[in-house]
Design goal:
Blueprint: H1 7-13, E1 15-30, H2 37-47, H3 59-75, E2 80-82, H4 89-98, E3 105-125, E4 132-152, E5 156-163, E6 170-175, H5 176-187, E7 191-194, E8 197-201, H6 204-212, H7 216-229, H8 236-240, E9 246-260, H9 263-276, H10 283-290, E10 304-309, E11 312-319, E12 322-329, E13 333-340, H11 355-377, H12 383-389, E14 393-395, E15 398-400, H13 408-418, H14 429-439, H15 449-462, H16 464-469
Parallel strand pairs: 2-3
Antiparallel strand pairs: 1-6, 1-9, 3-4, 4-5, 5-6, 7-8, 9-13, 10-11, 11-12, 12-13, 14-15
Helix pairs in contact: 10-11, 13-14
């Protein structure tokens, strides 16, 4: 077995399994109508029919909810544990799950005091009549929270945490890799587990398909299923009136796991990456990874951190509240993981229905980081790409002559393209026309639009545009070059192909171009919708 020498060689020749999946997901479970003081007043005064607007009126609901949890634990012989201060809940839950032998159910219920947002009633005084009256305000308090640690036949281990005080918000925590293991077992697909991951699988394509099928609908169905089984703070008449729980995203981890053929491949990868990418967290490089425009007003810090745990290093890069972590998992796999802590970093709401857009952002950030690392070590055109440029090519019914590397017009064309690499929305072909002519030592009038179309047409068909512009973090989507002829004042900034997904998060709309024969090049700029 050969030993890799570069990052590019590790990624291209020594990855035996690659899995792109949702990892840990932390969700807020809440009743939207009760998140504002006005909604709480409406619930107490109008829905429940109390004359006084006071949180004292919801105390019977709290007592009944806590009592139902205790009865549920007693009737079903479920351990009710009070967590000690500083106790690691996950470690304790792992021990308890080893003793649980049912297909699904509640493993145990944990109780802990935690700070949360609640409603309080203050006594206020009317300045005119001097009479006092109750007034509901938002505040924080240490109240009891109840953790339901469960195992689901489809999702595996998860927990649902309820606040015991009005408005009874909850948290749902699940793991996409545990869901994946459950699905593989149900379908009879042999696999070897990795801690919080998959080490090997007899059907890698089916593995990735299962990852892609973890949708927001299935997560919502998981919540509804267990809300029907567990004690519920709201009575049926409350739920019928519209006081129903909804889900929003608090934290989302999106991982790319690449299992390596031998441990030394991972060590070589990190040795080279850490040496060459200590600036990965700087502004210009963060823009490439997260595909977002960074200005002086963008909250930081922007930094790269190399953390060593024993002798196993990990690389961290931050963008606002979002973080990319890269580490050698269990000495067997490369894990690249984007953690989104605030969806508004990408101009996307927190509602669970935005999960598909957040998945695209996180997975593409993982791929871009690997691409930047690969380019920093393999920034010269490969032999195959170089030979492709220097040979004529035919794509369907279109032919293009070779781009001779040493030809003066080819060198001039590439140098002209470099002048426009930082423009966010492309450039008019007349600007490229002028620079191209000056680099050839000719007046602009001596070059016709047809000649410019011919050169750009060759770039696209030979594929040299992708190989060349990738080095400057640019992308070349399919263009309208298939039309013959030219159009006046055409632009070289292409529109997004219909086959590519649209970014709803982008604050900068992508301009749609006209039917231009030279409609070829678009910079993959933060805020654009062009895919890398």
């Amino acid at each position: 077995m050969s030993v890799p020498q570069t990052v590019a060689e590790v990624l291209s020749k020594h990855v035996v399994l690659q899995v792109e999946s949702i990892d840990r997901t932390y969700l807020n479970v809440y009743v939207p109508e009760l998140q504002a003081v006005e909604g709480a007043l409406k619930f107490i005064r109008i829905h429940r029919g109390h004359k006084v607007a006071s949180t004292h009126m919801v105390e019977p609901i709290t007592r009944e909810f806590v009592g139902s949890i205790e009865r549920f634990a007693k009737d079903n012989r479920i351990p009710l544990i009070t967590f000690e201060k500083g106790q690691r809940k996950d470690d304790f839950a792992k021990q308890q799950r080893k003793k649980f032998h049912q297909r699904e159910g509640v493993v145990f219920i944990g109780k802990a005091q935690e700070k949360c947002t609640v409603y309080r009633t203050e006594k206020r005084r009317n300045p005119k009549t001097k009479r006092t009256y109750p007034w509901i305000v938002k505040s924080t308090a240490l109240v009891n929270h109840y953790y339901f640690y469960c195992i689901d036949e489809d999702f595996g281990p998860f927990f649902l945490k309820f606040c015991s005080y009005f408005p009874y918000n909850a948290k749902l925590c699940l793991n996409g890799h545990e869901y994946l293991k459950q699905q593989l077992q149900q379908k009879g697909i042999a696999y070897q587990a990795l801690e919080n991951g998959i080490l090997s699988c007899e059907d890698p394509q089916a593995l990735q398909d299962l990852c892609d099928r973890l949708t927001e609908g299935k997560i919502d169905a998981l919540l509804r299923k267990w809300l029907r089984r567990l004690p519920h703070p709201f009575a049926p008449q409350d739920r019928q009136a519209g006081y129903r729980y909804q889900l929003s995203i608090l934290q989302l981890e999106l991982s790319l796991t690449q299992v390596l053929d031998q441990p030394v491949s991972g060590r070589i990868f990190f040795e080279d990456v850490i040496r060459e990418n200590l600036d990965i967290g700087r502004l210009k490089r963060v823009q490439l990874i997260f595909d977002r425009w960074v200005t002086r007003r963008t909250p930081g810090p922007f930094r790269t951190r190399v953390i060593t745990d024993g002798v196993i290093p990990s690389l961290h890069s931050d963008f606002k509240g979002t973080r990319i972590k890269q580490y050698h998992k269990a000495g067997q796999a490369l894990r690249t993981e984007t953690t989104i802590n605030n969806t508004y970093d990408f101009y996307i709401g927190k509602n669970l229905r935005n999960l598909p857009a957040l998945r695209r952002i996180g997975f593409q950030a993982n791929r871009r980081l690997l691409q930047v690392q690969r380019i920093s070590h393999d920034c010269i055109l490969a032999e195959e790409a170089f030979q492709q440029i220097n040979r004529p090519v035919q794509v369907t019914s279109q032919r293009a002559s070779a781009l001779r590397f040493a030809a003066p017009n080819v060198q001039a064309l590439w140098r002209a393209l470099f002048l426009f690499q930082v423009l966010p929305t492309g450039f008019p072909s007349r600007h490229l026309h002028q620079h191209f002519a000056s680099l050839l030592g000719q007046p602009p009038d001596s070059l016709t639009r047809g000649q410019m179309t011919y050169h750009l047409h060759r770039l696209r068909l030979t594929g040299s545009s992708n190989a060349f512009l990738r080095l400057t973090a640019t992308a070349l989507p399919t263009s309208a070059c298939e039309r013959r002829g030219s159009a006046p004042e055409s632009t070289a900034a292409s529109s997004v192909p219909d086959s590519q997904p649209y970014y709803p998060s982008s604050p900068h709309p992508t301009p749609r171009s006209g039917a231009a024969s030279t409609n070829l090049i678009r910079r993959s700029h933060p805020g654009s919708n062009t895919q890398n």
